[in-house]
Amino acid sequence: MLLKHLYDYAQSRNLLTDLAFAPKAVRWIIDLDAAGNYLGIVETGDGKRGQEFSCPRILGAKTGGGMAEFLVDGITAIWGYESDPEKKRTEKEEQDSQKNNALKHKNFWEQIEAATVATNHLGLSALRTFRQKLAANSAAILHYGKPAAAKSDVNPAWLLNVSGGEKKLGPENFTFRVDGKLLVENGVIRDWWRKLYVTNVEEDSTGKDGKCPVTDSKCQKNCGKGRCKLTTGLCLVTGDKYPNAQPLAIRHNPKITGIPNTGSGGALVSFDKPAYASYGFGKSLNAPVSENAAVAYCTALKHLVENEETSLSIGQTVLCFWATQTRPASGSFARLLNKPDPQSVRNFLVSPWAGIERELAKKDTFLAVTLAGNRGRIVVRHWLQQTLEQAIENFRNWFSDLEIQAPPKPQTSKNPKKTDKQTEFNPLSIYWLANALPPLKRDKGAMKPDMAKLHSEVPSQLYRAALEGSAPSISLITPILNQFRSRLLGDENYKLIYDHSRFALLKLILNRNRKETDMEIKTSLAADTDDPAYNCGRLLSVLSETQKKAQGYPKGFSGVAERYFGMASVSPATVLPLLLRLNRHHLDKIRKSAGNAYEEVTIRSIVAKFKPTGEAMPPAFPRTLDLQAQGRFALGFYQQQAADAAARAEAKGRNESTQDNDAVD
Fold first, then answer.
1. What are phi and psi of 22, to 5 degrees?
2. What confidence tens digit (pLDDT) does each residue in 435-450 have?
3. Residue 59 covered by a domain
4. Which of 176, 160, 174, 192 has the alpha carbon at shortest distance from 34?
5. I need a surface site. Which of 97, 404, 588, 616 has the fewest CB within 10 A?
6. 564: containing domain
C-alpha cells in the first residue's frame, strides 16, 4: 500500500519530530525594537526564495480562503495589499479577491493578538504595537511602482526599500525579529502554537452547532458538540482506532507541492464531490486515515518530490523513488538517471554493487511512484515495489540496452550556457532521451523539442523501462522517427551522428520488443546482417555519403538523405532503385577528380544482399516496411553514418601522424 510505505518513510527519516511545524522558506525578516518601532528589513538565503525556517503549520479548519499563516506570510496577510495588482480580473473576481485579501489580513493580526493575550510575550506585544503603526510605517518599508532606473516598458510592481536601494517583491514570505530574536523560533510562542495545533485537529473532527464537520449539513449521528462519530473509525495506514490513535482526517494535509498542474499544491487523496463518495461517507473519510498518518504520508511525499536525490521531473511527470534501508541507493539512481556521464555508466556496468552491500540489497525494498497532476489532484501513473537487488539489475540492463557506438560530441568554443543538472547534456539521461519524442518548435530561430507537448505517459514508460526492466511501447517509434525526419528536413544545425540519445532509445525499444525472427540491434554496425530494413538504411547512408563527397562536402547541403529518408524508410522499393541510378554520376565525378571511390565497394556489398526476382532483373527491395522495420532502417542508416565518420577520423589521424613524422625527418 503506497500510503503505508510513505508513512514508514516519514517515520524512518524522522520527518515528524514536531507535527505542529514544517520547513518554510522566508526571504525577508522585518526588524523591530522592543517598543515595536521599525528598524529595517533583512534579506535571507541566496537572494532567490530565502532561507528555510521551522514555521507553524496551519491544519484542519484553517485551510479555507481568507486564512493566514501564523507569524510567517506574504504581503497580503501582513499589509492587506493585493500581491499582483496588474493581473487582469473580471469585476466579480476583483471583488472576491478584495474580500479574500481583507479576511486574510484580518486573520493574520487576529492570530497575533490571540497569541499575545495568551502568552504575554514581550516580543508579540512589540509586534502588536508595530501593527498599530503599520499605516505610518508602510511607506518606509515598501511601495508600488517602477524601479528608479527601469525602462518605460517595465510593469510596475511592489518594491521593498532595503539597504542599498529597491528590490522587487515576488510571492515571498516575511517574518519578524524583535531585539535581534526571531519570534518564530521562540520557545514560549512555539509551545503555545503546539497546543493550538492540537485544538485545531480536534475541532476539525468535532461537530459544531448541530452540523457535521464531514458533510457540513445537519448531523445525523446525534454527535452533538462532541467528537463526530464518523471520525472515530479504523485507520487504514496504521491499523489503529480512536482513542488509541488520533481521529480520522477529514482533509489530508499538508498539500503536496512540486507536481505540475496542481497549482499551489495537490492532494493524493481527495473526495470533494458527492460522486466520488461511497456508503454515506464524506470527504477523505472514504479513505480513512488518521490525522497523524495523513500528515506523515503527505510530508513524506512532499519531501521526496523536493529532494533531488529521490525524485526526477520531466515535462508534466514526476518520479519519486527510495530504498527502505539502503539510503545511498536513491542518490546513485538519481545521479545515473539525471547525469549519466560515460565514465559513470562504465563504472556502474563494471561494478553495479559498489557502495551497496549485496546481501542487504536482497532483503531491502526499492519503491518508485510516477506522479502527474490534474487540477489540484495528484494522479498515480505507476507504482513499483521490488527488491533493491532486482532494481539494480534492471538498471544495469537499462544502460546495457542503451549502449550504442557514437562519436563524442565536440566541445563548442563558445561559452556554454548555464544549465541545471537535468538539462546538462548527457545523452543517456532520462531528460535527453525524452527530448527525442515531442514535436519540434522554433525558438529564436532554432529547432527545439516542445517538451510541453510531451505526453505524460512517455516519461512513465522510460522510468519503468529503467527501474522495472519493461519494454517501452513500439508506438514510441513513431514520434522518434517523425522528429528525426523533421530535423533532417528543417534543422540546418542538425548533426545526425551526434544524435546519440535518439538512436540509443530506438535500439532499446526495438530489442526489448524483438521477436525471435527479428534482427537484434548490436552496439556497433552489423555489416554481416541479412535484415532487409537495416541494410536499406545502410544503403541510403552510403548513397548520401557518396553524393556529399562528390560535391565536396558543402555546408548546408540538402542531399538525398534529407529529401528521401521519409519515403525510403517506408517504401524502399519506391526510392532506392532511382537513387542507385543517380549515384553512378556521383561515383564518376569522384573518379575523375582522382578521388578514392571506396563507397562503390560498400554499395555493391549491400546491394548483393537483395536477390533479384529473376535473371537480368534488378535487386528486389522491400515494397513496404512496418513500424519496427522502419526503426531498424533508421538504425542501419545511423550506424553506417557513425562507422563511416569513425573511419574518416581514423584516416585523418593516420595522415596527420605521417605528416608529423615526415616533418621530424
1. -150, 150
2. 999 999 888 778 889 9
3. yes
4. 176
5. 616
6. 514-665
Q: Of the candidates 178, 204, 230, which is a domain's last residue?
A: 204
Residue 602 domain flag? yes
Least confident of 1-15, 127-141, 378-392, 411-425: 411-425
Cis geometry, peptide bond prior to residue 243 (ω within 30 degrees of 0): yes
Give the 3-state secondary structure percentages of the chain, helix then strand then coil, rounded to 5: 45, 15, 40
Domain boundary among 204, 223, 245: 204
Q: How many domains are there within the chain?
A: 2
E strand or H helix that includes residue 323: strand 317-323
Query: Is residue 604 a contact partner of residue 580, using CB atoms and an 8 Å limit?
Result: no
In angstroms, what CA-CA distances link 297 with 134, 286, 538? 40, 17, 54
Query: Residue 209 has what pLDDT?
Result: 52
- The verdict on residue 559 lying in a domain is yes
In sequence order, the β-bridge partners of residue 385 are: 367
The percent of residues in the chain predicted with pLDDT above 70, rounded, is 89
Structural domain includes residue 615: yes
E strands, 133-287, in order: 142-145, 157-162, 165-168, 174-178, 181-182
- Residue 82 or 206, more confident: 82
Q: Can you give the pTM of this predicted structure?
A: 0.76
DSSP letter for 218, please.
B
